[in-house]
């Protein structure tokens, strides 16, 4: 890699600039570099990774998608300590949305040119497979141009248990009914000791990875995520990245990675909110470490649009989504929202060319 002169940046920096794979041990050295230096290395990796994309324009293009988060139910029996969204069935404000109501929301999305819904919900104890299959078929029939980016690995483990059906069969039936891709939600940190402390009833790290392995085998691509800044250590975060990278070596099914910081407001876990420098440091490390993942999304929803702009120089090449509706992160106190026009302005002001994309990172305009 000849994008930056490697003189004076040390052995680990030279290795990054040479495009070599970083070991988990070396990830510690990278993480402890001065912030600007780490950002420069991640930026070099982004440019190297994207230089052949989009007909050779990948270095200067930053993508985004117009979508809508739809949470079909807020009923959940898992009780994650970091979650401010879920309700019990006894709570007056619990709900389950009908296919017609969800279709109405999708129609509103289509009216503003959106192309995808992120469809997720709590682990409802009573909804049977018919609710989900009918919902997917109904939406696909009414809105054939909309990609259903739906559910998450913990939801699929819950479905497999509740429906008493093998995981692969559940995924196959969902895919055949209209599911287009699987979001990487519920990963938090893929280390069981951490998961037990923040979400004792959620699926294990191995189960999360097994859902993604199975989905990829069935042709369903997915994103990968990390929520950090709660009870985990740096070693846990690096282990999380190591496990994702290993699975990506095996399947090549992850389209993108996004990390965000834990939002403590209104949650049982509480605690301190990490600041921008730790977010940028972690995102930069992820860009370098995940050398087999093409796209890194900036998390401006939790950090704000200005830090989102800086994140584009710390390894990110995508500005995420317009998110016409968002209920989960905002329940924990975060309220950053933007229109497509505002997103394009922020990307342009950061020195990049904004382009709209679909779920598979193909340009739409
Ligand atoms: S994060 Fe998801 S699984 Fe956990 S309590 Fe909230 S809705 Fe339920």
Automatic annotation (TrEMBL):
Biological processes annotated in GO: menaquinone biosynthetic process
Family designation: Belongs to the radical SAM superfamily. MqnC family.
Source organism per UniProt: Methylacidimicrobium cyclopophantes
InterPro entries on file: Aldolase_TIM, CofH/MnqC-like_C, Cyclic_DHFL_synthase_mqnC, F420, FO_synthase_su2, rSAM, rSAM_sf
Top EC class of this enzyme: oxidoreductase
Gene: mqnC
Domain of life: Bacteria
Binding site for [4Fe-4S] cluster: 76, 80, 83
Required co-factors: [4Fe-4S] cluster
Annotated metabolic or biological route of this protein: Quinol/quinone metabolism; menaquinone biosynthesis
Protein name, as recorded: Cyclic dehypoxanthine futalosine synthase
């Amino acid at each position: 890699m000849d994008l930056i002169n490697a003189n004076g940046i040390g052995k680990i920096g030279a290795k990054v600039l040479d495009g070599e794979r970083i070991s988990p041990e070396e990830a510690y050295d990278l993480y402890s570099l001065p912030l600007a230096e780490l950002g420069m290395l991640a930026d070099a990796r982004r440019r190297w990774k994207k230089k052949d994309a989009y007909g050779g324009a990948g270095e200067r293009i930053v993508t985004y998608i117009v979508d809508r988060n739809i949470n079909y139910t807020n009923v959940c029996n898992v009780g994650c300590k970091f979650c401010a969204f879920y309700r019990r069935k006894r709570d007056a404000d619990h709900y389950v949305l009908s296919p017609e109501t969800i279709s109405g929301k999708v129609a509103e999305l289509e009216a503003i040119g959106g192309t995808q819904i992120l469809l997720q919900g709590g682990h409802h104890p009573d909804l049977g497979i018919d609710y989900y299959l009918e919902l997917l078929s109904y939406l696909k029939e009414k809105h054939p141009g909309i990609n259903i980016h739906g559910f998450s690995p913990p939801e699929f483990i819950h479905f497999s248990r509740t429906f008493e059906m093998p995981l692969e069969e559940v995924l196959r039936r969902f895919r055949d009914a209209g599911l287009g891709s699987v979001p990487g939600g519920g990963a938090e940190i893929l280390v069981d000791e951490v998961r037990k402390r923040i979400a004792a009833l959620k699926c294990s790290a191995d189960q999360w990875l097994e859902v993604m392995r199975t989905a990829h085998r069935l042709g369903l691509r997915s994103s990968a995520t990390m929520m950090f800044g709660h009870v985990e250590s740096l070693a846990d975060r690096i282990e999380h990245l190591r496990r994702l990278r290993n699975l990506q070596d095996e399947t090549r099914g992850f389209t993108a990675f996004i990390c965000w910081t834990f939002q403590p407001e209104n949650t049982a876990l509480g605690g301190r909110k990490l600041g921008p420098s730790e977010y940028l440091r972690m995102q930069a490390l992820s860009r370098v470490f995940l050398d087999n993942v093409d796209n890194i999304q900036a998390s401006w929803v939790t950090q704000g649009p200005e830090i989102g702009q800086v994140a584009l120089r710390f390894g990110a090449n995508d500005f995420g989504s317009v998110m016409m509706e968002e209920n989960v992160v905002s329940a924990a106190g975060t309220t950053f929202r933007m229109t497509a026009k505002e997103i394009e302005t922020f990307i342009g002001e950061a020195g990049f060319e904004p382009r709209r994309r679909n779920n598979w990172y193909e340009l739409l305009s």
